[in-house]
Predict the structure of Tryptophanase.
Amino acid sequence: MPLMEPYRIKVVEPIPITTRPERERAMAAAGYNPFNLRADQVTIDLLTDSGTGSISADQQAAGMRGDESYAGGRSFYRFHEVVSDLTSYPHIFPAHQGRAAERILFAALLRPGQTSLSNTHFDTTRANVELLGCEARDLPCPEARNLDSDFPFKGDIDLAELERALGDPGCDVGVVVMTITNNGGGGQPVSMANMRAAAEVCRRHGVPFFLDAARFAENAWLVTQREPGYAHKTPLEVAREAFALADGCAASLKKDGIVHMGGIIAMRDPELARRCEQLLIAGEGFPTYGGLSGRELEMLAQGLREVVEPDYLRSRAAATANLARMVTEAGVDIVQPAGIHALYLNAGRLLPGIPPHRFPGHALATELYLAGGVRCVELGSLFLGDVDAEGRLVTPAPFELVRLAIPRRVYTQSHFEYVAEVVAEVAKNPERMPGYRLVESPAVLRHFKCRLEPV
Ligand code: F0G
């Protein structure tokens, strides 16, 4: 059986086909920031895999039975049943998206001055920790520093560092957050062995261990493929085992819930649940809808069933692996080994002539748009580096990467072939790409609203 998509297309949406002069005008008007482009100026949109998936006919049908009662809607109980079966957590709250879930969980869990430890905090997770007057500290495993090695679980947390931080009397750790898969760390998976060991260390030190489970199904699939002892388990069994190791989770369900909007907070501790519930009612909605409609809760319940199907995960992983092969054959290195939700291109290596303060990742991302209408985003010094008030780079990021994120069930093999052709075209003449200079640079969440110009 060839590795083909286990679905066919019933509803289609045209994609804009543009010319290079049109794209040059659009990019200049957008201040060379892909977030400022209009979607109708983009041919293939690889900006994010979040909320951009295609819903299934079964999800759409489920949505039709959404119960929109303010309190106690039937849809909540159907959603609850699926999440409870998956996570085993007794307290489950919907939230409108991941960052709302994080805000509530951390506000209920952390006191100012405490530290949150993680394999890598996603940027909104970090922001929500810091907004509470706490420190967000990343402890990625040492293998993650070698982008080229094929170490299978570069998403792991550094267990020795975790033990050290938890044993340090000067460090008041309020929570340990394991991000699966590790989005900020190249979309790499976390092994069950690492999760189990981290959970054990946390239990010994009496510190809550939570999952940021946005891509729990993709992590589970990679465990079945890469971790000894898991080849014969289903992704659902592996995911259940991961949730069972933790005290609870916060998750954006815009990824592995395959819906356009949604999130959850779930936990074992009834006292923590009571505090979260109060914050949820004040900020999101009554606990049986938590910022979502009955229609969305139904679609989520169905999406969570579909996302753990082995045929779906196998084909999605194969599509990413195939794109990874085409891109590397075109001469562009990626963070190895390829994960599932995105490819991370090594722009620093492709563009040695562009120094970090001229943002090589941004140069590559911009050129992919200009050459072929492919929208993606830099994950390098523009996003992660320290910049002063005049927009000058003070501290560069450790790597200059570009993320090609892959929406779920949206693009076909020929779209990926097109993307690979655009990458190959751009990679032929790296010296022709200009660097960039910041001309407007907001103090917080710079990458969303900054403006640049080529130099
Ligand atoms: N945690 C992780 C690991 C994420 O990747 C994201 C979002 C969030 C939390 C926040 O969830 O967007 O629903 O509020 N990641 C998106 C991305 C935006 O493009 O990687 P949200």
About this structure: The chain has a mean pLDDT of 96.
